[in-house]
Amino acid sequence: MAAPATRDNPFPRNPWNRVAAVALVVYVIYACAQMEISWERVQVGLVNAARFLDRLFPPNFGRAELLWKGLKESMEIAVLASTLGIVLALPIGLLAARNLMPAWVTWPARLVIVLARSFHPVIVAILFVKAVGFGALAGILALTVASIGFIGKLITEAIEEISEKQVEAVRATGAPFASVLAYGVVPQVFSRFIGFATYQLDSNLRNSTMVGIVGAGGIGGTLFAAFQRFDYDFVCAILIAIITVIMAGEIVATAVRAIFIDNATLRDLFRRGSLRAVRHAEEG
Amino acid sequence: MLTLKNLDMSYVPGKPVLTDINLEIAARGITAIIGPSGTGKSTLIRCINRLVEPTGGSILFDGADLARLSGRALRHARRHIGMVFQEYNLVERLTVMENLLCGRLGFVSSWRAWRRRFGAEDVAQAFDLLDTVGLAEFANRRADALSGGQRQRVGIARAVMQAPKLLLADEPTSSLDPRTSVEIMELLADIARSRTIPVIINMHDVELARRFADRVVGMAGGRIVFDGPPSSLTEGALTGIYGGEHWMH
C-alpha cells in the first residue's frame, strides 16, 4: 500500500480566496461608513416611506384618458422598437458570427453591437431627444438601439454555438450560402431566437414606460409629471396600469414561445397544464 | 471517373497527414479504404469534395481539377458528389423530408429554398427514396426523433437525392451496432449497383470491407500501402496496413 502522506492534497487551499473575502467585507463596511448610512438614517427613511405609502392609496383613476394615451404610446414605442430592432439585429448578428464570416466582416459588426450595448437606454434616449426632439420618435430610436445590441449579441452567440457538422453536410451538397443559412443555420438557432425576441419585447415594454421621464414619449412622461405635482394617488394608478401591461405582455410572450418552441396550438394554450404535456411529448 | 494525383495534405506545415496519394476510381463499384485510426482516411475523403483543403496535387473529376476550383464552380462540382457521414450530420430540427431535400439545394435557387418551393419531381423523388430506404411514414418526423440506423438511412437518401456521380461515405457504420451496420452496407451496395454510382467508403471494419467492397485500398501513415480486390487481403497485407500480428489471432 502506498503511504497516503506522500501524495499531494487533492483539495489544496488557495490563500488568496481568504484574502479576497476579507477584502470584500472590509470594503462593504468602509462604503457604509463613507455614505453615512447609520441606523438613524434608516429610521428617518422608514417614517418618510410610511407617509408616502399612505398618500399613494387609494389610487386615483380619474384621469383615465391621460393614462390610456400614455400607455398606448408606450406600447407603440415598445412594439415598433422591437420590430425595427430585431429586423436590424438579425443581419448584424449574422455578420458578427466568427464561424460563418471572415474577420474583416465580423469586426465592424461586433463594433456596432458593442456600441449599441455601451449605454443604458435612458442615456441613449437623452441623446435622441437632443438629436430629433421630444416625443415618441426619440423613444423608438433609443429602444431600437438597445434591441440591436441585445438581440445582435445573443444571435451572434447562438450562431457561434451551432453544430458545424450539420452545416458541413448542407455545404457538401453544393448549396449556395443563402441556402446553407436557411437549412443548416436557421433551424439550429430559430427556437433560441424566438426566446430572445419575446424577452426583448418584454424588456422594451418595461423600458418604454421609462424613456418618457427624459422626454422620449410614453407613459413615463405622465408618471414624472405626476411625481412632480405630488399627485401620488395618480402615480399609484399609473404604476398599477404599468404592472397590468407588463403582465399582459408576459402572457403574450409565453404564448408565443409555446407556439414556436413547443409547437403548441392555440387551443392547447387555453387548456390547463397542457403546455407541460406538449413539452413532454416533444421530448419523448 | 475520379483520379487523385500526388495528393498531399497537412494541417500543420511539416506534419503531413496525406503523402503522395495516387488513386484512380472506376465509374462503378465500391471501394473501401481501410487503415488504422488517424492515418488520414477521413482527410482523404474530405479532400475529394474539398471539405478540407489539400496542400498539393490534383483531384480530377468530371473533366475538372477540383483542387483548383473555388466559389460557384466548386459548389457546382459538389452537387455531383454525395456524402454520407459517420454521425449522419442530419439537420436535427428539420423534418426527414426537409433533410432529404437538402440534397437538392445545389440545384434550387436560395429564394425558392427559403420558401420550401421545391420542384414537384424533387418531392416525388424524395418520397420514392424514403420508400426505398424503408422510412416512408417518417417524412414529417423531425430528424432528432429517429434512431441511429434510421438517421443513417436518411443520410444516405439525402446524398442520393443529389443524383450524384460519386458517393463518398466517411465511416458510415462506425456509430451503429453490428446488425444495423450490415443493413446500412447492404443499402449502400444496393444503391451503388442499381444506380451505377461509384462509392468510396472509409471503414475500420475489415470484415465488412471484405464482404461488401469490390476493391480495398489500405492506408498506413498517410500513404496507400495496399490496393487490390478483397480476396487478396491476406494476413500479410493486413500486417502491412495495421502493423503487428498478435491482434489477428
Give a verbal description of the structure.
The complex is a heterodimer of chains A (284) and B (249). Chain A has 284 residues and is mainly α. Chain A has a domain at 64-225: Orthogonal Bundle (MetI-like fold), CATH 1.10.3720.10. Helix content of chain A is 77%, strand content 0%. Chain A is built from 12 helices and no strands. The longest helix of chain A has 32 residues, at 64-95. The model of chain B has no long low-confidence stretch (mean pLDDT 92). With 249 residues, chain B is α/β, with parallel strands linked by helices. Chain B has 9 helices and 10 strands. Chain B has helices spanning 41-48, 71-78, 96-101, 110-114, 120-132, 148-161, 178-194, 206-212, 235-242, and strands at 2-9, 18-25, 30-34, 56-61, 64-65, 81-84, 166-170, 199-202, 215-220, 223-228. In chain B, helix 5 (120-132) packs antiparallel against helix 6 and helix 6 packs parallel to helix 7. Helix content of chain B is 35%, strand content 22%. Chain B has a 6-stranded mixed sheet with strand order 6-7-8-3-9-10, sandwiched between helices. Chain B has a 4-stranded antiparallel sheet with strand order 2-1-4-5, with helices on one face. The interface between A and B is medium-sized, with 23 and 33 residues.
Q: Which ranges of chain A are low-confidence, i.e. pLDDT below 50, for 5 or more consecutive residues? A: none
Work out the radius of gyration of chain A.
26 Å
Can you say what the CATH homologous superfamily of the domain at 2-90 and 165-248 in chain B is? P-loop containing nucleotide triphosphate hydrolases
Structural class of chain B: alpha/beta
SSE string of chain A, helices as H and strands as E: HHHHHHHHHHHH
Q: State the shape of chain A.
A: globular
Largest interface, C-beta within 8 A: A-B, 23 and 33 residues
Span of the ends, CA to CA of chain A? 49 Å
User: Taking all residues together, what is the mean pLDDT of chain A?
Assistant: 86
Mean pLDDT of chain B: 92
The CATH topology of the domain at 64-225 in chain A, please?
Answer: MetI-like fold
